[in-house]
Every structure is written in structure tokens, then in C-alpha cells.
Amino acid sequence: MTDRPDGAAPPVGRPAKAALAAWIGSALEYYDFFIYGTAAALVFNKIFFPASSPATGTLLALSTFGVGYVSRPLGALLLGHLGDKFGRKRVLLITLLLMGLSTVLVGCLPGYGTLGVAAPILLVALRLLQGLSAGGEQASANSMSLEHAPENRRAYYTSYTLSGTQAGQILATAVFLPVAALPQEQLLSWGWRIPFWLSAVVVLVGYFIRRSLEETPVFQEEVAAGEVVKLPLAVLLREHWADVLRVVVAALIASVSTIFTVYALSYAVNTVGLSKTPMLWVGVLANVAAVVSIPLWAKFSDRFGRKKIFMAGSLGCAILIFPYLGAIAAGSYLWIFVVGIGMFGIVYTATSAVWPSFYGEMFPARVRLSGTAIGTQIGFAISGFLPTIAVGVTGTGHGAWVGVAVFTAALCLVNVIAVATGKETYRVPTARLGRKEPVRHEVSVPQ
């Protein structure tokens, strides 16, 4: 850490408070993001695209879900710059308020029958605002947690951001369970709006929690030493472009999440004809398992390294995607639950537990938020369109799942290559993270 010019002691980190705030904030924010995906899979084709055939309407509805990922890289550029120049805390507040406002407004939108073509246009515009917010959310929360954490527990504390994301998905799916059980007429007229309106409460709680956050010791040290760069993006692309590219490719592991949460749900309900309620419960239970398993995987990562855990999770997903989609095609609820919970709730979480620390540790503090945000959001943007690509390329037959499984497995293997070629960082001291010179000292790892 750079010595303070005034000779004062460096600020002391508060890892538990930072991790809790990141967990709660991510849970609240990603509740907003995931209720959109659920609504897109179940009802938006009928509300905003009723003039299209069922298959085309589903394709268009899922496309609006993917559109949110288009603005994510733009949000990463803008919010990453703000976070590296003015601090992590400001970005956390901006993302929460922007996501909440756009989500509440989605719930207020009239359907196609009232506004005509203006309805889906406004829907896409609000979805773009959601994506803009999400572009800076996780990177700022991860940077906040990592820079407050002890050096030998960085993965553990940063993993709570992803645990919060899973909790947000649990909340979103759980809210939709009683809504999806409404009679069709009530569901399409007013029922689907309730989860979006509830976001107003979510935003209020999240704002007060995040407002009490303290800025990270690392950023305070940069300010005190006068080391905050004026143009973080220029420094990032000049000195760390290779790491940004590696994060982009590694972030394609998010394809497993979008296939599981959006494509598989749509395929099961709209193509195979399975009931909505049990399929929603698969997501709830898988995410309950994920909330427990993520910090456990992170502890293993702090002890044994980032890369081993990450690659094991990627390879496991490449294998398990076949029996999961196959179980859906066969209509076997037992195997849907067993394999779905195992894949998404246990195996996939090995990657979720590691990437918040692994990506952040590739960059020095002065460009950490920008590097993490831009790299992940470009990768996530690609992953966000995979449900749409899956529907468009493979059609709607009962055998459509095979091509989707092969495609998803191939992306997992590409992810393994990207992670394998990166540097192991779990023993690198926080002050030396992202530096290009050889590391001479390592932090001790408790045995």
C-alpha cells in the first residue's frame, strides 16, 4: 500500500460490513433484474407481442431480455470510470436507484392492446436502463468487498456479492410462484405487474443500507497519495488489455445461468408443455443451494487457489447440461430437480464463488472497477443473447435441447481455456495485485 503523505495510519477495512452490504444490495438489485427474465419467459409474449405466432412471440419476448445485456458494456464504461475516479460507494448508489426506477416503470407499462407498437418500444427502452445499471453493479460491489477484505480471505468476502445475486433470484422466482398460479386472465391483466411494483420497497431498503457504506481503504489511500488517474479507461486499455480480454472470455460461463434461468424455463413450459410451478421451484431450490455453496467454494479457493475451483465448475457444467435439458425433454420432474439443483446450485457455483476475486485480482486498484466491469459485461452481453439464439437456431421441437446443450458445453470449454491461461493470484498481496513486475512476497494461507 502506498504510504500516506501526511504520515497518518492507513484506513482500516471493515470486511464483514462491506460483504453484508454487498450481499443485501446485490440481492435487492438482482431481484429487479431476474423478475424481468421470468416475465419474459412466461407472459411478455402474450402482453407485448400478441399479434405474433406463439413461437415468434416467445422469440421476441426473450429478445427483450437479451437487449438488457446490450447496454451493460456501456454501463460498465460509464460506471467503471466513475467508480475508479470518484469511489466505489457512489456507483453502488447510482446502480440501485437506476435499476429500481426502470423496474417500477416496467410494471406500469400498458400492453400492446392499449399502446400498440409503442408498448414493446418502451419495454425495450426500460430494459436498456436496467442493463445500464447492472453494468456497474457487481464490479463495484466486488471491488468494495475485495478492498475491505483480509488478504488471505478475499475470495470468501467477495463471494457474498454472488450469494446476494442468487438470493435475488430466489426472491424473484418466489414472488412469481403465486403470481404464475393466478388464472390466465388475471395474470395477464394485473398479476404480472405485482413483482415489478414491489421493487419500490426493495429500492428504499437497499438505498439506506448502501448509504451507510464506507469507502474502501484502498481507494482512500489512492486519494491521499494523489494516485487516482484522470482517465482510467485509457490506462486500462494501454496496460491491461490482455486481462480485459481474458475476463471477457471467462465471463462466458454466465451462459450456463441464462440457459438455465430463461431458455430452459421457456423450453419446458412453451415447448414440452410442463407446468410452470414445478419449473419455477427448480430455480428456487437451486438458488437456495447456491447461497450455501458459494461461500464454501470461496473458502476452498482461498486455500487452494482460484483456477482449480473455477475450471472444475466449468467442466462440471459442460457435462451436466446434457442430462438437465434431456430430463426436461423427457418430462421427468424427479431428474429435472436432481440434476438442475446439482448443476446450478452446486457445480456452477464453483465459478460464481471464484470469479469476483479472480477477475478483480487481475487489475490494480486504480483501474480495478473499470477492468472488472468492462470485461464481465461484454462477456455477459454475449451470454444474455444465448436464450434467443438457442430458440432461433434450434427451433421448437422436443429434440431442440441437444443443439443447445452442445453449444453451452462448448462455451464452458472455451471458458476453461481462458481461466487456465491466467495467472494464479490467491497468494498475491492486495497492494501488489495487477502489477506487471514479478511478485517477491506472498501472503500466508492458513492451513
Summarize the structure.
This protein is mostly helical.
Give structural notes:
This protein has 447 residues and is mainly alpha-helical. The protein has 21 helices and no strands.
Rg over CA atoms, rounded to whole Å, is 21 Å
Look at the structure and give the mean pLDDT: 84
Spans where pLDDT lies below 50 across 5 or more residues: 1-10, 438-447
Query: Element order, helices and strands?
Result: HHHHHHHHHHHHHHHHHHHHH
Helix/strand structural class: mainly alpha
Proportion of helical residues: over 70%
Strand content: under 5%
Q: Tell me the overall shape.
A: globular
Number of helices: 21
Terminal CA distance: 26 Å
Please tally the β strands and state the result.
0
Main beta sheet strand tally, sense and closure = none
GO molecular function: symporter activity
Function: May be a proton symporter involved in the uptake of osmolytes such as proline and glycine betaine.
Membrane topology: Multi-pass membrane protein
Keywords: Cell membrane, Membrane, Symport, Transmembrane, Transmembrane helix, Transport
